[in-house]
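Session log. Operator J.P. requested a structure for one protein chain; no other inputs attached. Running the standard single-chain path with token output.
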Amino acid sequence: MRVIVLGGCGEMGSEATRDLAQTSEFDEIVIADIDLSKAIGAKVNYLDLGGLYNTPKQLELDEEARASGVTICLGCGATPGVTNLMARRAADQLDEVSEVHIAFASFRSIAPSPGLLDTVLDEFSPGSRRFYWRAGEFIEVPAFSGARRVHFAEPVGTIEVYMFLIRRRTRCPDS
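Structure written below.
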């Protein structure tokens, strides 16, 4: 039996593909991914789970994509993505919204993984960039900026949160 994993070289796809290779009984696993400019040239719509430091580069393709009739939809993962949709749903139920802040916390330790190590190393890398959106433009911020205390429901409680980077792979993982 064979399977093809579309988007298998991205951050999420590579982890799913690794799990599939280690736990499935497939005879063959084909990993397929795209080069965004070739996706536009092929007139194929593009959906991306991540964003952040890749987002400005992806937004530069807007004019080319529109001219080709291609839709590029960015930030469709958990956050950004699902949290953005939740914020929009809440905003639609209010008369006026001036700001939206999204924070994440966990009441237990995050499981050690290669992706977690990559993210921590990227946070301390001088070449990493992180952004937030305000008044129609991206604002770049340094690592561990935006510290603020946020109260979460129990068992988390009140903790300090920061702006952080979501790392994206640019290569396929080794099996």
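Operator note: The radius of gyration is 18 Å.
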